[in-house]
Amino acid sequence: MTDPSDIRKGLAGVVVDTTAVSKVNPETNSLLYRGYPVQELAASCSFEQVAYLLWHGELPTEAELTAFEELERSQRALDPAVKRVVDELPLTAHPMDVLRTAVSVIGALDPDWADASPAGNLAKSVALLARIPAVVAYDQRRRRGLPLVAPDDSLGYSANFLRMTFGEVPSEVVVKAFDVSMILYAEHSFNASTFTARVVTSTLSDLYSAVVAGIGALKGPLHGGANEAVMHVFDEIGSADAAEAWLDDALASKKKIMGFGHRVYKNGDSRVPTMKASLDTLVAEYDRPDLLALYDALNDAMQARKGIQPNLDYPSGPAYHLIGFDTGTFTPLFVASRITGWTAHIMEQLQANALIRPLSAYVGVAERHVGR
Ligand code: ACO
């Protein structure tokens, strides 16, 4: 009989495998993608460069980047068959469910879905990177009664994504803030959705199935769904002067405060200062000091009451709101970015695969027999 004290609920603190994709160091609050601090990547690189880095292990040369950008730009259009399926889905469907369905359709339409060679999976990964923005942008537009916007191949990933969502390219400040959020969300070691994707991959299922499962895991509010949940909290509180009383009520009723806390970082999420700086630029751009005041008031009250630090979803939620995304679109934006990390892990899992199959300690009824 397993000693119950040996069980690590939620696999907390359990190291299940090695990875060369990223390193999270909670002691120093640092996060490295393939050895590079994420803050440096956010300051100096585009999301496309970071995607290339996660997949290839090195930043691209100029020629490699040009070829990679051409490949990404050539696959951005929304497939009419995918659009037809999206159009069939009711507006009551959550945007994460629409995206999960769309990715499933993209996979079912790919005649090479079973090609799990490194080149085959890399091609699928780039295709998903290129194609997910069209689904996310179109879903938000159809909810507003607006038509599809065709991609613009002259634009970088983020500028094109924003144009496909809003019909025009916003200012450079907005494009940069969005690009930074994509870089920060791209990868985070064995988080719940990445681990999910690796579990599915470990059965030798295909890349699309692993990604669809990852989307399902990311949707939950304890994980990626928190960026959406943060905005609901902001809407509920309304203004900075109501934050303290709202928090006291929420804590008294034992609620988890969305956007705070992290399984790995206990002294602050390494990505927050970078995203908060981007949020500051957006607050100035859209002249919304009231939103920043609410952000600060809730954070200050949380620090005073619980001392639990914000995670990346805390600044990214209001940032996406300021850019103009519907609240339900926030977690699909996380998918658009994390597709890079998920697929890097799927390919890494296949390099040295072992079926992921843990054990459990049985605590049910003792053995008994039918009819006795
Ligand atoms: N609000 C209130 N209390 C909290 C919070 C929170 N957000 N986070 C942790 N705590 C408290 C717990 O109640 C618990 O207190 P107790 O020991 O008195 O019972 C203690 O801190 C430890 O919390 P756990 O839930 O055991 O920590 P765990 O590592 O399992 O949880 C998690 C991490 C799920 C992220 C949690 O902090 C949480 O629910 N946060 C809110 C959801 C959220 O923002 N998720 C985003 C994660 S980051 C990302 O996906 C980018």
From TrEMBL:
It comes from the Bacteria. The keyword Cell membrane does not apply. Keywords: Transferase, Tricarboxylic acid cycle. Gene3D superfamilies: Citrate Synthase, domain 1, Cytochrome P450-Terp, domain 2. Pfam families: Citrate_synt. It catalyses: oxaloacetate + acetyl-CoA + H2O = citrate + CoA + H(+). The keyword Cytoplasm does not apply. Pathway: Carbohydrate metabolism; tricarboxylic acid cycle. Belongs to the citrate synthase family. This is Citrate synthase. It comes from Herbiconiux moechotypicola.
